[in-house]
Amino acid sequence: MHTCTFNEAKRLVRELVEAKGFPNDESALTQKLLWAFVELGEAADAYKKGEDWSIICEELIDVIFYILDFIGLVEKTQGTEIDVDKLFLEKWRKNMNRPNQYGQRRDIKVREG
Fold first, then answer.
1. At a CB cut-off of 8 Å and minimum separation 6, what does 12 contact?
2. What are the residue ranges spanned by the domains of the chain?
3. What pTM was computed for the model?
């Protein structure tokens, strides 16, 4: 079985976009993010309806496709290179160093007066 890094997946998604004629210029950046949200909503809806895990996970993979497409399009249109594997590991390490259940609870401050 072949494993795939985020950077390889980004390249494969960009190859798909070009081969299938999907929007591929700077004006499509917002659209890519919005479609990621749509796919996330479809995953939530499938979960809510009790769909099979494979269907839910396929919708989540669609989210990843759009995110990687967005990053690849940023690279193409902005002339930069984004190492997704490195970013993922840096963010993972940062989160591992945070306290347990960070961001899960907020103390509500009561204003007096």
1. 4
2. 27-96
3. 0.86
